[in-house]
Amino acid sequence: MASLWGGRFEKEMDDIVKQFNASIGFDQRMYDDDIDGSIAHVTMLAEQGILTVEEKEQIVAGLEAIRTKIAAGEIVFTVEDEDIHMGIESRLIAEIGEVGKKLHTARSRNDQCQVDTRLYLKKELREVVHRLCYLESVILEKASQYAETIVPGFTHIQHAQPVTVGFIFMAYFQMFRRDIDRLEAAYERMNYCPLGSCALAGTTLPIDRHRTAELLGFAAPSENAMDSVSDRDYCLDFLSAAAISCMHLSRWAEEFVWWNSQEFSYIDIDDSYCTGSSIMPQKKNPDMAELLRGKAGRVYGDLMQLLTVMKGTPMAYNKDFQEDKEGLFDAVDTWKASITIFANMLEKTEFRVEQIARQFDKGFLNATDVAEHLVTKGIAFREAHSIVGRMVKACEHKACDFTDLSDEDLAAIDPRLSQDVLGDISMQACVEARKSFGGTAPAEVRRQIAVGTAWLQTVEEEWA
Question: What is the spatial distance between Cα 400 and Cα 405, in angstroms, rounded to a whole number?
Fold first, then answer.
């Protein structure tokens, strides 16, 4: 089959070159976007008098017929089609004859490819936002459920201070909130229509790019034709947001792996999100959490691949740019699946409250609270820090906790100390006292939940 661009060529492409050159194997997923872009384009051409209304109607009818056939599986693309743009256009010409050859007036595959990708990515970005909103809703529900459930908080993978499970959940809520913020900013930057930029320099024909942008739901046409066909920043914006978000998922998945271990036993992950061992019958492995960690590296690779493709490309279009899509499509699929898998796993995971409580006597979780309590007694914090450090050392020698130190033990450390001076340093009291804005006190966690709930409702309304 002769290529639509082959007029100046005397030879057909070599078979191996056809295979290497073709993108139809992966870009056919954008057939809807390609047809939408073409319909908007010919509508504008007719309005501008470049095509007749009858020609436009023939082309639109032909494109819709092809859309129906593709959806029904009646059209099978091959490397002979080269890409989705040529695949649809060649079938349009076969379907409606010579008038089909007018479809490509005042456009190039360069801007056509760009409008397809932007249309595709706008839809997928919206779907990612919806999935992140679902994850956030699960987090809010679980945070409310466990707003008062105390658990050791860690720094350096060592017991640090008592916090609530709901507090941890709301920490991750903020991470995914920033992911949505990044997507909203990326959407604004990609919401400009490149169609009509043609190969790189615009066209001599009297087109109306503002009208095309309007028909396709863009905010406006892109400003510079050369930039329009060579820009992949919007793909990089999306991939960067995907990489950061998958890092967030990976961090929490890592904690799930810890929490699921016998050494922690903090959580019970639903069987439907675990696997067994082919040799050890007792095993219940957190494989979905582990896979989520691994998927983050895959999305990082997608980002680095496109950054590498773009780094040495001169203006304007280069064939290298065809390499933008496979990594982009992979990141879209991987990110969406990762969000949904994690949200569902999270929803079906329960915390073992009694098992967690057994960990409270390890690591002097209330040490900072004791130091801060001494500050309220007029002792400078740095001095209080030193005093509590000596209390820890005394407890280690006696293999006991703060509450086991006698008044004589405490007075030997500092004459101002006694059990009465220490006051209530139970885990419950320590957590409830941390009422500073953004703190772990249950009342403060519930405030965070209320703020998060209001924000999420606004986002869901905006992206409905």
Answer: 8
